[in-house]
Amino acid sequence: MKKLTLEILTQESRVFSGEADLILAPASDGQIGILPGHVSLLTRLHPGEMFIFHGPQIEVLALGGGLLDIHNNEVSVLADSAIRAEEIDIYKVEEARKKAEEALKQKLSTREYVLAEADLRQAVMELKVARRHHYGR
Amino acid sequence: MSQSTRLIKRRIKSSQNISQITKAMEMVSAAKMKRAQGLAVNSRPYTERMYQVITSLSQKAKSQTEHWLFKDPRQNFDPKNEFKVLIVLFSTDKSLCGGLNTNLFRGLEKWLKNMTIEMNLPPKTSLTFVTVGRKAKDHVLRTGRFLMAEFSTMGDRPHFNDILPLARLISEGFKAGEFQMSFLAYMEFISTISQKLAVKQLLPIIAESAAARPELTFEADYIFEPKANIIFEALLPQYVELQLYHTLLESLASEHSARMVAMKSAHDNALEVVDQLTLEFNQARQSRITGELLDVITSRMALE
């Protein structure tokens, strides 16, 4: 059976590079599933969970938005941030969430508010992914 | 005689001090270099892929979208007007990095001489500069050119957000027609011992022909989600930011590499000088001892 080749890149590093049978990604118009033979597509990604199925293995990543491009069964994800579920440090993220929540309570300029809100959303999303991953086992 | 040995001794001491300082600077630069190189090399695939996506899509989507960042001003340009070119020059803040900045400026001047012909520009062109780094600012002012803005000290750990003001300045200036073309000039990081001048066109974005890069041929049907022009609207400014950020990382990696190499050779030189001076010192001491011995012997012989 044909497989997808997937590459997940961020500004800092290559997070994932390998084959996959099925990919679930948080596209701008809702979750999309990608199987081999998908038509060419370019879509924006929302922050959310990404699932990579390869044989019996499932890999879960927390994505912080980005861009997804498919052609010829090659999937490339240009993510603003991407972290594997098992690499998320729950305590650290919990702390980040608290910090962001506190920052939101204080009076801030619009720009700072938006930044803090983005931080909070990221932390909450990472927590969700990490929790599901840890309890799922 | 004793005067000269003391002098030599002092010189040995100062050379040793220099060698210690340069050694320390070398080690600091080595640590910074490692990080800067890592950042620059790791951000390359992302930047290159983004470029691929944009250029290949611009081919496909040309019929669907028309974006101001793609507009080539060289076409339909009224030759009576002045064609303005913006050059974003990246240099270091500090010196002591060997010939890095000298090579940068010399290469740039050479490039500027041939720019009008090579880039196929209208005959009446004027230059505007935006600089990142103190040395670049100094150079532009020294050569008496027009400096529009300067950004100094992005620091050793530049954050993506640091580049946003610069990116906005350039994008908006281009949109408003303050300049018609923009180039990036910086020292490209090739390896620790080699950096070379790179001048890249930033704006308008060049959409390379798909035929030139066969690995990027696309099928006819391409789905865009959301609509192509919405994606482009968000993607193209991001592309400018990304290019600038990547350039900053590259020039930083070059800076630290060049500094480390320069400090290493300075350290080696200092040690060589110490060796030479030590030899000179020993010779001087020996000849003094010989002289004194001669004195003793002759006076002894005179007594006998």
TrEMBL record, chain A:
* Pfam families per the UniProt record, alphabetical: ATP-synt_DE, ATP-synt_DE_N
Q: Which residues form the ATP synthase epsilon subunit C-terminal domain?
A: 86-130
| Segments forming domain ATP synthase F1 complex delta/epsilon subunit N-terminal | 4-82
* Any one GO CC term of the record: plasma membrane
Instruction: Give the membrane topology.
Output: Peripheral membrane protein
Alphabetical keyword list? ATP synthesis, Cell membrane, CF(1), Hydrogen ion transport, Ion transport, Membrane, Transport
The protein's location, in the record's own words, is: Cell membrane
MF annotations from Gene Ontology: ATP binding; proton-transporting ATP synthase activity, rotational mechanism
Q: Which NCBIfam families match?
A: ATP_synt_epsi
Q: What does this protein do?
A: Produces ATP from ADP in the presence of a proton gradient across the membrane.
Q: Which family does it belong to?
A: Belongs to the ATPase epsilon chain family.
Quaternary structure and interacting proteins, as annotated: F-type ATPases have 2 components, CF(1) - the catalytic core - and CF(0) - the membrane proton channel. CF(1) has five subunits: alpha(3), beta(3), gamma(1), delta(1), epsilon(1). CF(0) has three main subunits: a, b and c.
Q: Which PANTHER family would you find in this protein's record?
A: ATP SYNTHASE DELTA/EPSILON CHAIN, ATP SYNTHASE EPSILON CHAIN, CHLOROPLASTIC
Q: What is this protein called?
A: ATP synthase epsilon chain
UniProtKB/TrEMBL annotation, chain B:
- Lineage of producing organism: Bacteria, Candidatus Beckwithiibacteriota
What's this protein's name? ATP synthase gamma chain
> What family does the database annotate?
Belongs to the ATPase gamma chain family.
Glycoprotein is among the record's keywords: no
Q: Where in the cell is it found?
A: Cell membrane; Membrane
Q: Keywords, A to Z? A: ATP synthesis, Cell membrane, CF(1), Hydrogen ion transport, Ion transport, Membrane, Transport
| GO terms (BP aspect) | proton motive force-driven plasma membrane ATP synthesis
The cross-references to Gene3D superfamilies, in alphabetical order and at most eight, read: 3.40.1380.10, ATP synthase, gamma subunit, helix hairpin domain (1.10.287.80)
| An example Gene Ontology molecular-function term | proton-transporting ATP synthase activity, rotational mechanism
Q: Which InterPro entries match?
A: ATP_synth_F1_ATPase_gsu, ATP_synth_F1_gsu
Mainly resides where?
A: membrane
Membrane topology type: Peripheral membrane protein
